[in-house]
Amino acid sequence: MRTGAENGEEGGVAPALKCNAGCHGLVRNNSGGIINPFCSYWTNSKSMELNTLKDLYIHELKDLFSAEQQLVKALPKMAKAASNKELASGFQEHLEQTKGHAQRLEKILSSHNATTRGSKCKGMEGIVAEGAEMIEEEADHEVKDAGLIAAAQRVEHYEMAGYGTARTYAKLLGDREGAKLLQTTLEEEKDTDQKLSKLADSAINVAAAK
């Protein structure tokens, strides 16, 4: 029997695969998984292939679902850490919206016979981690609230970019219902961002500046 090494493979593991996005510098972990910290398309050897815009669309939907699931866990902590009652209430309100966003994504994926299972959204993971650091900071209450708004708006801007992209893909692929649902979520994300800006400008940032 020929071993992996004899077939030009290291340690009997299949050769590294090239990312469909054209990334380079892929490396392996001990279990044979493929890791590239600069690309979320490949997280292990079982990652879905992206050969068509439809594949990319499904990938984006799964990524957004992962992002929303992470946010569902993060928002209650942010609400608890907020001193301003209006800010805390806003976080709780957006938590319920976020649950609805995840349900919409699940509905769209189901319409394409796809599940919500996929790689963890690394982008949201990093943003949530930054928010968690702010929660743990020793800071004046008003200053911490200002920092929490900044963290929350990073989340909103990241999600707006993701939903805008997915909506565009949906339109190009003729998924009218998906495009409609994604547009609804996009508008809600924009509205949340505007509310945060208004609260920051009218009260929280002003208090933090004193």
Please supply descriptive tags for the structure shown above:
about 210 residues; mainly alpha; disordered N terminus; Ferritin; two-stranded antiparallel sheet
Briefly characterize the structure:
This protein has helices at 53-81, 85-111, 122-136, 141-172, 176-209; strands at 27-28, 34-35.
Characterise the protein shown here.
The protein is mainly α and 210 residues long. It has 2 domains: 1-47, no CATH class; 53-209, Ferritin, core subunit, four-helix bundle (Ferritin), CATH 1.20.1260.10. It has 5 helices and 2 strands; from the N terminus they run E-E-H-H-H-H-H. Strand 1 and strand 2 form a beta hairpin. It is elongated and about 55 Å long. The N and C termini lie far apart (75 Å). Mean pLDDT is 84; it is low at 1-46.
Give average pLDDT, whole number.
Answer: 84
Number of continuous helical runs: 5
Q: Estimate what percentage of residues fall within beta strands.
A: under 5%
Strand order of the largest sheet: 1-2
- How many discrete domains? 2
Q: Which SSEs are present, and which pair or pack?
A:
Elements: E1 27-28, E2 34-35, H1 53-81, H2 85-111, H3 122-136, H4 141-172, H5 176-209
Antiparallel strand pairs: 1-2
Helix pairs in contact: 1-2, 1-3, 1-4, 2-5, 3-4, 4-5
